[in-house]
Amino acid sequence: QVQLVESGGGLVQTGGSLRLSCAASGRTFSTYAMGWFRQAPGKERQFVAAIRRSGGSPYYADSVKGRFTMSKDNAKNTVYLQMNSLKPDDTAVYYCAAAHASDYQYDYWGQGTQVTVSS
User: Fold this and answer.
1) Which residues contact 106 (CB under 8 A, 6 or more apart)?
2) 8: left (phi over 0), alpha (psi -120 to 50) or beta
3) How many Å apart are CA 117 and CA 3, to the nearest integer?
4) What is the pLDDT of residues 7-66, one digit of tens each?
5) Which residues pair with 110 in a beta bridge?
6) Distance in angstroms (rounded) separating the CA atoms of residues 85 and 65
7) Where are the beta strands (DSSP E) in 1-119?
8) Is pLDDT at 87 greater than 80 in this prediction?
């Protein structure tokens, strides 16, 4: 079992920055793929960024490429999402997720953290 706890959400103006954190329990954190997703009111959940089980460079949705940076600290069992140049369209609940057996089938989800970008 893996438990995920997100933090760092809040209210920010257009053009501002936020850094989200996701702390994970479990001794095998380094072997999991980790992802960030978001869901805006009335919309489906949307992929944001992820790091594969093998590590390597993160990959991003086109909508956030160049503005968001994901990183993973295996020593701290934590993943981060640095969000810069925020836009009102980035407003959503942001979730982190962990995948064990696949890079794309996520088994565990956090409770989410609200990000609101005012215009």
Assistant:
1) 33, 35, 97, 98, 99
2) left
3) 27
4) 999 999 999 999 999 999 977 788 899 999 999 999 999 999 999 998 889 999 999 999
5) none
6) 11
7) 4-7, 10-13, 18-24, 33-39, 46-52, 55-60, 68-73, 78-83, 92-99, 108-109, 113-118
8) yes
Contact 36, 49 (CB under 8 A): yes
Residue type at position 108: Y
Q: Give the whole-angstrom CA distance, residue 48 versus residue 26.
A: 24
For the sheet with 78-83, list strands across it: 4-7, 18-24, 78-83, 68-73
Contacts of 74 (CB under 8 A, 6+ apart): 29, 30
Output b/e per residue, 2-14; b: 16+ Cβ within 10 A: bebebebbeebee
Structure tokens at 5: 């706890």
Return the closest-CA partner of residue 24 out of 44, 6, 42, 51: 6
For residue 82, what are its two tokens? 């640095």
Q: Which amino acid is it at 44? A: E
> For tokens 């257009």, what's the residue?
14
Residue type, 21: S
Tokens 């979730």 belong to which residue? Answer: 95
